[in-house]
C-alpha cells in the first residue's frame, strides 16, 4: 500500500513538472551589415557624419545646449503621459501578482455563529421511518410511538477553523498563465519606455522649432532695420530731387511688409513655448521667462555616435514590446491547451464545531476534511476548441506584428539617415545662396546711392536676402531635427531616465 502511495506521489510530481503548449524561443532578428545600403549612401560632402560608436543614452547632450539638457532631465518626472504610463505599469504588476497567487495554496481562517431552528417536521418523519424499519423491536416501537411528539429546540451553532485549497498544476495551466502575465507586464514597461523616448524626441523637436522661430524673428527685425534705413535714404534723395515719389513709397511698402511679419512670428513663438510647457506638465506661460533667453539653433556635432545595427533590438522599446507580446501569446496557447485536461484541486479544512460556546475548545469538538476534487471537461459546446484556435491565431498575429515592427524600425533608421545627410547638403547650398544674395544687395544699394538705377533692384535684392536667410535658419533647424529623429529611431534615451 505504501509503495502505491509513493508511486502516485512520484507520478504527480512528474506531471506537475510538465507544461502544455509550445515553449517560447526568442525569434531570430535580421540585422544588416551596415546602416545604409551602398546605393543610398551620400555621395556629397556633409559636415556631420554618424559613426558606429556606442551612443550616449542622454543623446541630447550632443547639442551642447544647457537649456535643452535641463528640460530633458526634468521631462521624465514632469510629463503627464510618462507619469500615466508608469501607473499602467503598476496595474500590470498587480495583475502579475494576482496571476502568481494561483501557484500557491489558498489558506483562509473562518469563524461563525448561528441561532438555528431546524425543521421539526423533517425530524418526525425521519423518526417514523427509522421506527418502521425497526418494527417489532423495543427501540422501533418507541420511536414510532414518540415520533409525532418529537420537537427540535432552537440551537446555538458555533464553529471556527482553517480552510485550504491548492490546484495541482499537472498540465502547466497556472504556470502558463503566470508566464503570460509576466510577459504582458514587461510589455507595458516597454510601452512606457516607448512613450518616454517619443516625448523626449518631441521635446527636442519643439525646442529646436522654437529656436528656429526666434532666429527667424531676429532675421526679420534685422531686415526691418535695413528697410528702415533704405526708406530714410529714399526720402533724403527725394528731397534733393534725385528720385521720384515711387521709390519712397516702394521703400515704405517694403518696411511695412517686413514689419507685418513680426506679430505673426511672435504669436508662433508664444504658442510654441506653450506647447513645450504642456510637455513639461506646466501651465501656459510658466516657462516663458526660461525659454525667452537668447539662444541659437542647436548645432549638430561633426560625428554623432549612433551605435551598430545589432544593438537596435536592444534599444528600441517597440521591438522589445512586440517580442514580449509574442511571448505572452505563446504562453496563452499553452494555457488554452491545458484547459482540455483534468483540473485537480486538493481541498482541506480543520476546525471546531459545537452547539455551545464553552464546548468549542474541546478536542472532541474537532472536525476536519481533506481530499482531492477532479474536474474533467466533457462537453463545452466548442468553447475550449474556439478558445484554443483564438489563442493560436493571436500567436501568429503577434509573430507577424513582431516582424513588421522590426522592419519598420530599420525603415525609420534608414530614412532618418538619408534625410539627415540630404538636408546637410541642402543647407550648404542655401548658405552659398545667402552669401550671393547679400553681395547682390550691397551692389544694388551702392548703385542706388550713386544714382545708377532706381529702387526696384534694391527691393528685389532685399526680399531675396530675407527669404534665403529664413530658409537657411529653417534648414539649420531641420538638420538638428533630423538628428533628433535619428536618435528617436534608434530608441535611445530611456536607459538612464526611466521614472520609477
Query: Fraction of residues in helices?
Result: 55-70%
Secondary structure tally, helices:
12
Whole-number count of domains: 1
Which percent band covers the strand fraction? Answer: 5-15%
Unreliable parts: none
The largest pleated sheet is described as: 4 strands, antiparallel
CATH class: Mainly Alpha
Look at the structure and name the CATH superfamily.
Answer: Outer membrane efflux proteins (OEP)
Q: Which sequence of strands runs across the widest sheet?
A: 1-2-3-4
Please give the number of β-strands.
Answer: 4
- The CATH architecture comes to Up-down Bundle
Task: Output the structural class.
Answer: alpha+beta
What best-fitting shape do the alpha-carbon axes yield? Answer: elongated
Order of helices and strands: HHHEHHEHHHHHEEHH
**First-last Cα distance:** 57 Å
Account of the protein in words:
- The protein has 500 residues and is of the alpha+beta class.
- It has a single domain (16-109, 172-345, 386-490), classed as Outer membrane efflux proteins (OEP), CATH 1.20.1600.
- Helix content is 61%, strand content 9%.
- The chain has a four-stranded antiparallel sheet, with no helix packed on it.
- α4 packs antiparallel against α5 (138-146).
- The protein starts with a helix and ends in a 10-residue tail after the last helix.
Brief summary of the model shown:
The protein is 61% helix and 9% strand. With 500 residues, it is an alpha+beta fold.
Keywords for this structure?
500 residues; alpha+beta; Outer membrane efflux proteins (OEP); 12 helices; 61% helix; 9% strand; elongated
Amino acid at each position: 500500500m505504501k509503495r502505491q502511495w509513493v508511486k502516485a506521489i512520484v507520478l504527480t510530481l512528474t506531471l506537475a513538472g510538465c507544461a502544455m503548449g509550445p515553449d517560447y524561443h526568442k525569434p531570430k532578428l535580421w540585422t544588416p551589415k551596415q546602416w545604409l545600403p551602398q546605393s543610398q549612401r551620400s555621395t556629397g560632402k556633409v559636415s556631420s557624419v554618424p559613426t558606429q560608436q556606442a551612443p550616449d543614452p542622454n543623446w541630447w547632450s550632443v547639442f551642447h545646449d544647457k537649456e535643452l539638457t535641463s528640460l530633458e532631465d526634468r521631462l521624465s518626472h514632469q510629463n503627464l503621459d510618462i507619469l500615466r504610463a508608469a501607473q499602467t505599469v503598476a496595474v500590470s504588476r498587480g495583475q502579475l501578482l494576482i496571476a502568481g497567487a494561483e501557484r500557491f495554496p489558498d489558506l483562509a481562517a473562518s469563524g461563525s455563529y448561528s441561532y438555528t431552528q431546524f425543521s421539526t417536521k423533517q425530524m418526525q418523519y425521519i423518526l417514523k421511518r427509522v421506527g418502521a424499519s425497526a418494527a417489532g423491536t423495543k427501540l422501533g416501537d418507541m420511536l414510532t410511538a414518540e415520533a409525532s411528539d418529537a420537537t427540535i429546540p432552537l440551537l446555538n451553532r458555533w464553529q471556527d477553523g482553517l480552510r485550504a485549497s491548492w490546484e495541482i498544476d499537472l498540465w502547466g495551466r497556472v504556470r502558463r498563465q503566470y508566464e503570460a502575465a509576466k510577459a504582458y507586464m514587461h510589455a507595458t514597461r516597454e510601452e512606457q519606455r516607448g512613450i518616454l523616448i517619443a516625448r523626449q524626441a518631441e521635446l527636442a523637436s519643439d525646442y529646436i522649432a522654437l529656436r528656429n522661430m526666434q532666429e527667424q524673428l531676429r532675421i526679420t527685425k534685422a531686415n526691418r532695420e535695413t528697410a528702415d534705413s533704405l526708406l530714410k535714404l529714399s526720402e533724403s534723395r527725394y528731397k534733393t530731387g534725385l528720385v521720384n515719389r515711387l521709390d519712397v513709397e516702394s521703400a515704405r511698402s517694403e518696411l511695412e511688409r517686413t514689419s507685418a511679419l513680426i506679430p505673426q512670428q511672435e504669436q508662433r513663438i508664444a504658442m510654441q513655448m506653450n506647447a513645450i510647457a504642456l510637455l513639461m506638465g506646466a501651465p501656459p506661460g510658466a516657462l516663458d521667462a526660461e525659454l525667452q533667453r537668447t539662444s541659437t539653433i542647436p548645432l549638430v556635432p561633426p560625428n554623432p555616435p549612433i551605435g551598430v545595427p545589432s544593438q537596435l533590438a536592444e534599444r528600441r522599446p517597440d521591438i522589445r514590446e512586440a517580442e514580449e507580446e509574442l511571448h505572452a501569446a505563446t504562453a496563452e496557447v499553452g494555457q488554452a491547451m491545458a484547459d482540455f485536461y483534468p483540473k485537480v484541486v486538493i481541498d482541506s479544512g480543520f476546525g471546531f464545531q459545537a452547539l455551545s460556546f464553552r464546548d468549542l475548545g474541546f478536542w472532541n469538538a474537532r472536525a476536519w476534511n481533506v481530499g482531492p476534487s477532479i474536474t474533467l471537461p466533457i462537453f463545452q459546446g466548442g468553447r475550449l476548441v474556439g478558445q484554443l484556435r483564438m489563442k493560436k491565431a493571436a500567436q501568429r498575429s503577434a509573430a507577424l506584428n513582431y516582424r513588421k515592427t522590426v522592419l519598420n524600425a530599420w525603415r525609420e533608421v534608414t530614412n532618418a539617415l538619408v534625410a539627415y545627410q540630404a538636408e546637410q547638403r541642402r543647407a550648404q547650398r542655401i548658405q552659398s545662396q545667402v552669401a550671393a544674395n547679400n553681395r547682390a544687395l550691397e551692389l544694388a544699394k551702392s548703385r542706388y546711392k550713386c544714382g545708377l538705377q532706381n529702387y526696384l533692384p534694391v527691393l528685389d535684392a532685399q526680399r531675396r536676402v530675407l527669404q534665403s536667410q529664413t530658409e537657411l535658419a529653417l534648414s539649420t533647424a531641420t538638420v538638428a531635427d533630423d538628428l533628433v529623429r535619428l536618435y528617436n529611431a534608434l530608441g535611445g534615451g530611456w536607459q538612464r531616465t526611466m521614472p520609477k
